[in-house]
Amino acid sequence: MPIAVKEPRTDQMVHEDAQPGPFTRPWRFLKSVPSLEFLPEMGPFEIALAGRSNVGKSSLINGLIRRNGLARTSNTPGRTQELNYFLTDWQPPFYLVDMPGYGFAKAPKEKVAAWTGLVKDYLRGRQTLVRVLLLIDARHGLKAVDGEIMKLLDGAGVTFLVVLTKADKITPKALAHVVTATEAALKSHPAAFPDILATSSETGLGMEALRTAITAILAERA
Fold it and tell me: Mind listing the pLDDT tens digit for each residue in 33-71?
């Protein structure tokens, strides 16, 4: 029998009259954090973007806030080597945190080890971290290193939402299969949300759905 594949969630499933949220406001870069001792004082909520090197975290941030170039992008894996904080004047205040990528990177091994350690220490110990957006390249799906991060988040009790990036680079049928496989993998991770968002920073696919999801996270804590 053929296997039914579930369609990924996109902007078509978001009401056209969505209320204004934090992504209608101007955003700015706050600071880069090379080690935990330089983290901002705890207070505002933090939503972090995690994922393998070159998965498209910076591009996704620029797409979310509708401002090209605020988060630095590069085709070279490993360009982001610190925690980069972005904020707006939305109330309650919160930060978007662009994290260094884990996995393969074109950088010395000792540097990769250092920023990978920073990522893991931050994810398991930041009390104001309310959600992780776990970015997965839709062309490649989940890898073993993603599973390691998901286990870390399970152990730390930090909930995460899987966001597929570069969804415009594969066919709708292939995308649906990636979603199905990812859903199956998430069932063994108690910290995972069952929803999966398919996005493209180039075409805008799924961006409004992701903005709505983030706004809902903030509303839960208002």
Answer: 988 999 999 899 999 999 998 899 989 999 999 887 787
Can you tell me the distance from the alpha carbon of 142 to that of 121, in angstroms, rounded to the nearest whole number?
22
Over residues 100-126, mean pLDDT = 73
Which range marks the domain in which residue 94 is found?
21-220
Q: Do 136 and 165 form a contact (C-beta atoms < 8 A)?
A: yes
Q: What does the alpha-carbon distance between residue 98 and residue 84 come to, in Å, rounded to a whole number?
A: 5
What the block records as the tokens of 4 is 């039914």
Question: pLDDT, tens digit, for every residue of 150-196?
Answer: 999 999 999 999 999 999 999 999 999 999 999 999 999 999 999 99
Look at residue 7 and tell me if it is in a domain: no
* Residue 87 CB coordination number (10 Å): 20
* Run of H or E residues at 64: helix 57-65
- AA identity, residue 156: A
Tokens coding 123: 């994810």
The residue among 136, 120, 122 whose CA lies nearest residue 39 is: 122
**Does residue 1 sit within a domain?**
no
Quote the pTM value.
Answer: 0.85
Q: What is the DSSP letter of 27?
A: E
Burial class (CB in 10 A: 0-12, 13-18, 19+), 159: middle
